[in-house]
TrEMBL record:
Originating organism: Nicotiana tabacum (Common tobacco)
Protein name: Glycosyltransferase
Annotated EC: 2.4.1.-
InterPro entries given in the database record: UDP_glucos_trans (IPR002213), UDP_glycos_trans_CS (IPR035595)
UniProtKB keywords: Glycosyltransferase, Transferase
Domain of life: Eukaryota
CC per GO annotation: cytoplasm
Keyword Transmembrane part of the UniProt annotation: no
Annotated family: Belongs to the UDP-glycosyltransferase family.
Gene Ontology MF, one: quercetin 7-O-glucosyltransferase activity
Length: 467
């Protein structure tokens, strides 16, 4: 690790969700390794949940702030109106905090070199602009999605909205595929007012990065994975510095085996259960940190797993209980059901043969780094875009199809699981591609790897030059 520099210190602000905390903490570790001090800031309620698990790293300082929900988020995620109320409170109190901590440190003669903030936090960029503070966006979703958002808000808005049929698609400059409605985040096409807060946030992100010539945006991806997408916006300098996952799973560093920011407690005994299974035999099923699947979808997944006759490890969130499923007893005999687990560890286990996933970006990168092929079942936001990349660009998985009523049947889940895990030609090709991308991801953080070189250049040319 490089010696920490007293005059190089960044404020890293992230949204208090598992999907943003994980890559942000890993990014902080990477910066510290290069000699940069990091003050990590998110809501007090989130840090209270993970205080016992946070990594103890020299150079990492925690600076939580109140978002108005210090005792937890009542019904957040249950109602979009309640979520909007939470986000409004988060913006108001967070903006005040960022302003105060930045100006106070400057008055003390130890200013921050830069503010770095993650997706959905456009307000941090706005506060930084008001303070005349240097700032950088850390985009924790794919570069491809930022391209789609950029062209939607700058030139393609009406074309996107007039493309309602799945058979129709648009050519976006620099992207490796034609973009159809299955790849466009659905809230852009039909928000009905409920997602206006998110649309406004993304629009502000685009306005901020478009207001400066050659604005730098750090992206949780790597050059080989999204080469065209990283270069698709001519006046924006997107820099791949990922994958932002614990280095133990990239370079074998035994001291960095977890993100250190779990908001929930892991279940027990699942690793022992995996140890009892043959190599490449287990289907791992997980749909992210917050997704609570409808009962009908739970039932169809259950039926697909039973029909596959393969052992499975299924992470079931929140109120997604198995109690009301028609096949609960059969499921418990065939597989293991847990409330939470260390996904990076599970995906690295030799018994894993397939990952049935919602295709969140963190899950997507973790499957790539682990060389595990995917059954893609996207639900919303970036997941349709990610599943397109998985199936048609990287060719590391297959996407489930919905029936005429708009849901996925159990037989379809079984079909896709069999494609990925059976001995046929298609499955063999998927597994071969998955291993190819695994090796490519590991190469990118080597001494001369693209992401390592890119991040060093950012530290030397941007952070240290303003220190």
């Amino acid at each position: 690790m490089a010696k920490l520099k007293d005059n190089c210190h960044v404020l890293l602000v992230t949204f208090p969700s598992q999907g943003q905390i994980n890559p942000s903490l890993q990014f902080a570790k990477r910066l510290i390794k290069l000699g940069v001090n990091v003050t990590f800031s998110t809501s007090l309620s989130a840090l209270n949940c993970i205080s016992n698990n946070l990594p103890s790293v020299e150079g990492l300082t925690l600076a939580p702030f109140s978002d108005g929900y210090d005792n937890g988020y009542p019904n957040v995620g249950k109602s979009l109106d309640e979520y909007r109320e939470f986000y409004a409170s988060f913006i108001a109190l967070g903006s005040e905090f960022v302003s105060e901590i930045f100006t106070d440190r400057a008055k003390e003669g130890r200013p921050f070199s830069r503010i770095i903030y993650t997706a959905v936090l456009s307000w941090v960029g706005i506060v930084a602009r008001r303070l005349n503070a240097p700032a950088t966006l850390l985009w924790i979703q794919p570069a491809t999605l930022l391209d789609i958002y950029y062209y939607y808000f700058t030139s393609y808005k009406e074309a996107f909205k007039n493309c309602p049929d799945e058979d129709k698609s648009l050519e976006i400059p620099g992207l490796p595929f034609f973009v159809g409605t299955r790849e466009i985040p659905s809230f852009l096409l039909s928000s009905n007012g409920l997602m206006d807060w998110l649309i406004q946030t993304i629009k502000e992100h685009i306005e901020l990065i478009n207001s400066e010539s050659n604005e730098i945006v750090l992206v949780n991806t790597f050059d080989a994975l999204e080469f065209e997408a990283l270069r698709a916006i001519k006046n924006v300098n997107m820099v791949g510095i990922g994958p932002l996952i614990p280095s133990a799973f990239l370079d074998g560093n035994p001291s960095d085996t977890s993100y250190g920011g779990d908001l929930r407690q892991c279940s027990k005994d699942y690793m022992e259960w995996l140890n009892s299974k043959p190599n490449a035999s287990v289907v791992y099923v997980a749909f992210g940190s917050y997704t609570e699947l409808p009962k009908q979808m739970m039932e169809e997944i259950a039926q697909g797993l039973l029909q596959s006759e393969r052992p499975f490890l299924w992470v079931v969130n929140g109120e997604n209980t198995m109690e009301n499923l028609s096949c609960k007893e059969e499921l418990e005999k065939q597989g293991k059901i847990v409330s939470w687990c260390s996904q990076v560890e599970v995906l690295q286990h030799p018994s894993l043969g397939c990952f049935l996933t919602h295709c969140g970006w963190n899950s997507t990168l973790e499957s790539l780094v682990s060389g595990i092929p995917v059954v893609a079942c996207p639900l919303w936001t970036d997941q349709g875009c990610n599943s397109k990349l998985i199936q048609d660009v990287w060719k590391t998985g297959v996407r489930v199809n919905v029936n005429e009523d708009g849901f996925v049947e159990g037989a379809e889940f079984k079909r896709c699981i069999e494609i990925v895990m059976a001995d046929g030609k298609e499955g063999e090709e998927l597994r071969k591609n998955a291993k190819k991308w695994r090796d490519s991801a590991k190469d990118t953080i080597k001494e001369d790897g693209s992401s390592n070189v890119n991040l060093k250049a950012y530290v030397d040319e941007v952070l240290n030059s303003h220190a």
